[in-house]
Task: inverse folding
């Protein structure tokens, strides 16, 4: 009698879809996500889009905290840097949405370096405090640099378009959000299967041992 799901080699252990059971339920869930916008009301679609944005941010936080074991309380600040960068590039410099999107990622990464490099010498509670400080610093900038961010009023960004097709409804934007979520989750899932991903796990499990074998 079968009493477990055992892997016979490392390749099978690292497969994304490890069983027919997983493939079936993921396929069913994906089918539901594709059908959902045609049966949901606009408010439900709006909430779903907000959830999608949160999932994308949470994927990055999971890589940092879940797989690397480094606690960060300032993750939302860097997501905000990316959001404001895209909004400013689109409204002030007439960038297209598709060009502003990768630029926002680059600027958010640079902001992460500004905080991350000085924080290399701290870990644990001290790293947690450093990232919390970053959260308040960036939040202060977002609110008080009104000439750029418009403060608490925010920035109205025109809807993106694909050629002549305008993503100006919650239903249309839902599919873009879903695509981005799948892209982010797929990238993160594959990253942890690589040498870099295994280094993340090694740092989480025993940082001193990881440093001894050349991981920093």
Result:
């Amino acid at each position: 009698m079968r009493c477990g799901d055992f892997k016979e080699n490392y390749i099978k252990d690292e497969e994304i879809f490890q069983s027919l059971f997983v493939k079936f339920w993921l396929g069913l869930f994906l089918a539901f996500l594709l059908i959902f916008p045609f049966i949901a009301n606009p408010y439900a679609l709006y909430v779903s889009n907000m959830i999608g944005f949160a999932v994308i941010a949470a994927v990055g936080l999971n890589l940092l905290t879940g797989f690397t074991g480094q606690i960060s309380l300032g993750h939302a600040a860097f997501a905000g840097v990316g959001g404001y960068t895209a909004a400013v590039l689109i409204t002030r410099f007439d960038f297209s949405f598709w060009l502003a999107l990768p630029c926002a990622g680059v600027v958010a990464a640079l902001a992460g370096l500004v905080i991350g490099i000085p924080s290399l010498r701290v870990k644990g509670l001290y790293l947690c405090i450093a990232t919390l400080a970053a959260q308040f610093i960036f939040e202060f900038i977002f609110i008080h640099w009104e000439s750029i961010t418009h403060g608490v009023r925010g920035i109205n960004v025109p809807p993106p378009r694909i050629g002549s097709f305008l993503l100006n409804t919650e239903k249309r934007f839902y599919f873009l959000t879903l695509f981005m979520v799948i892209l982010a989750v797929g990238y993160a899932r594959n990253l942890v299967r690589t040498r870099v991903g295994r280094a993340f796990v090694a740092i989480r499990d025993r940082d001193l041992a990881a440093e001894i074998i050349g991981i920093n």
Summary: The chain is about 70% helix and 0% strand. The longest strand covers residues 161-162. Residues 161-216 form one domain.
